[in-house]
Amino acid sequence: MLFNSIKFIVLFPIILIMYFLLPGKIKKVWLLICSYLFYALWNPAYVILLMLVTAVTYFAGLFIGNRKEESYVNQKKLAVAVSFVINIGLLGYFKYWNFLVDNVAAILTRIGVPFSQPGFSIVLPVGISFYVFQSLTYVVDVYRNDCEVEKNIINYALFVSFFPNILSGPIEKAKHFIPQLHEDHSFDYDRMKRGMLLMLWGYFLKVVVTDRMSILVDSVFDNYASYAGIVAIAAAVFFTLQIYCDFASYSCLASGIAEVLGFELIRNFDQPYFAVSVADFWRRWHISLSSWFKEYLYFPLGGSRKGKIRQYINVMIVFLVSGLWHGASWHFVAWGFLNGAFQVVGGIVKPFKKSKALQISGTFILMTIAWVFFRAQGIMPAVLMIKSMVTGFDTTALTNGSLLDLGIDIKDYIVIVISLIAILIVDIVNERGYRVRDILMKQKIYVQWPVYLAAIFIVLIFGVYGPDFITANFLYFQF
Amino acid sequence: MRKKFLGLFIFIILFLILLCVANRIFMFKEGRGVSSFYNEDKDSYDVILAGSSRMVFGIDPRILKDEYGINSYNFAQYGQHAPLNYYYITDAIKTQHPKMVVLDLYRLDLEKEDQTGDLVHMHESIDNMKWSVNKLKAIMDLSSVSNSPQYFIPFIYYHTRWKELNKNDFTGNDKTFFGYRELGTVMPYGEFEILDEDEMLEPSETVIAYLDKILDVCRKNNCELILINLPRYSPLEGDDAEENDRLQRMANGLVKYAEDRNIRYLNYNHYLEEMDFDFSADMYDENHSNIYGAGKQTRLLGDYLLK
User: What is the ipTM of this complex?
Assistant: First the structure.
């Protein structure tokens, strides 16, 4: 069930009313039931996988939590290792088995060894990369004494399966989320309003902006050989903006829904395209994943404490793993490599110090190049597409109507441009430390209501939804 | 807190009102003759004309009233199939208690079991109906649970029209005359060949079931059901010739049905000479007659009804 589906929009108020009518402890049972049903609607069989991940990390947490004394350190380390092996093993099996088999087959075929591929293919359980990582934070946080052990299985299962963020994050950390499960979640009107405003912004980003831009992006990337020059550049820039709006929209919806229910999720984006370097970009983009890698991979590898060379190696390891985390395909690895390499080179030559605008523009261009590898269907298509941007550059594309032949017309472009200006303004406000929601909620009712109604109707009128369209998945669902 | 909830309640009401206004603006305006029907006084029409677009363009209630003294309303809707014919006739009988219902058969697609029709026409038919238990039954009958929200909130379907809105969408004038819509253009066609009456298509079970339901609701309300088949032109050669044959077979297929149930059936294909129908002057396109054709068709019906 997608947040942008009619089904969810009908069911959410029912979930909400029940949630606030039920007494304290039952609330969490209700949320757990809803979360499991939400997940089961994708693939009921994979609920068992979710239960297994929950059970492994729950018992690992109990095991570690019951052994406070220093003398148990080896046993605790073993528990952490076992839970990592099982969870990462499950992730590896479900996400990378097909990739591994394909590559082994390719290598063996190349050296002339006959190899018959197994006759089954594994369907990726939606959200597995997110909830496996999230549940592992608990084991590590308990091990590091950053988080109390959670003995209540309902609470813990809810932490792993919480429906707002199970499919695409933000990847919560146990030390941030589990304490919230012990707080009071009775109804708070203003909190609900704040959450719903964030959801409204999420819907705007998704159905008005992302789903409209994706029409052009898909047209070009899926037939990259037919396009070059300005059209290919436009598609690359559009994708750079689309993936931001798409993923930010999911995070807004997840955080907004959680806020309505009385929970605060980690802020996942911090105006990433205002970044002055690729390293800065990764402090602002998918923050919950970046900080996971930082805390649970980069630091354990030694971070920057073991000299520059080792630091650069660590950065490359983190981003190659991050590329692979995003998808079991070499073009994701290439995308991770580029992101790591940009940071290493940036660290060596030091970023431009001339002007901030130049730094922001430079970072945007580098990210656009990297995103081509992310979106393209392989490394070669990405290389060919970038090549065609240069070799096929021709300004006549601006006047001969090529840009209007990509599935969207001039009116759609107008909607996209106005929407992007609105997003830019909101990001500038956020960058200056304000929140548009807070500013709005302080206004008089005759200012608030027209703004809310206008926003709702902008989404309803200009949104790409309804029986003429297939409800579009969020891009990050595939990871 | 109570004040805040009151505010929320007012906000939701305001939103719903605006949604209704937006829906009215964004809806197709072609079907306004149907929604205007619901504003008519009760029991003011003796004859209800039902069917699809061929009826909308084919029978002019003004002629029936002026020349035959018959008060009628053209309560047909574009692309309407048998199930929606049934729900429309039910609605019409409920308020007008007519003496007769005249149903054109064209869109029945007799041999087909699936009688739901395409999305555009489903919306045109359902969204112009007044909210009632009958409309709810129509939605439940013709759409799945997952598809039904678009009929409860039709804006889900119509919002994509933002690119094509024009002045008429805001004024929303009903350009019909008692539901009849004039088509002035003449499309000259050539010869028309009538198939033998023995050549027929068997109606599907769905069609029979809905026709029986229509007959049942008519008889329960002391109303006579009359079936008609308005003229349609098809070339004698090429792919369309087959379609022409199919439609003629379909029209013939209803003869037995009508006889078995003692229903009057006026198949225009057999009266073309009598009414001086001229395919070179009376058609707007292959499926629809223009005002000249509609005049001839209406007069034949007027004579038939007074028999």
Answer: 0.85
8 Å CB contact between B97 and B219: no
Angle subtended at Cα A236 by Cα A398 and Cα A394, rounded to the nearest 5 degrees: 30
Task: Tell me the sheet residues that pair with B265.
Answer: B227
Q: How confident is the model at residue B107 (pLDDT cuts 50, 70, 90)?
A: low
Assigned token pair, B131: 């909210």
**Cβ-defined contact of A460 to B22 (cutoff 8 Å):** yes
Instruction: Record the tokens describing residue A321, joined without a space.
Output: 């793993």
pLDDT digits 0-9 by tens, A255-288:
999 999 999 999 999 999 999 999 999 999 999 9
User: B22–A461: do the CB atoms touch at under 8 Å?
Assistant: yes
Query: A67: how many CB neighbours lie within 10 A of its CB?
Result: 14
Q: What percent of chain B has pLDDT over 90?
A: 60
Q: Please give the structure tokens belonging to residue A74.
A: 């080896």
Q: What is the phi-psi region of residue A471: left when phi exceeds 0, alpha when psi lies from -120 to 50, beta otherwise?
A: beta
* Chain A residues inside the 8 Å CB shell of B162: 461-462
Does an H or E element contain A54, and which? helix A47-65
Chain B residues within 8 A of A445 when measuring between CB atoms: 7
CB A465 within 8 A of CB B158: no
| Phi and psi at residue B59, to the nearest 5° | -125, 125
- Hey, is the C-beta of B131 within 8 angstroms of any chain A C-beta? no
Work out how many CB contacts closer than 8 A connect A with B.
45
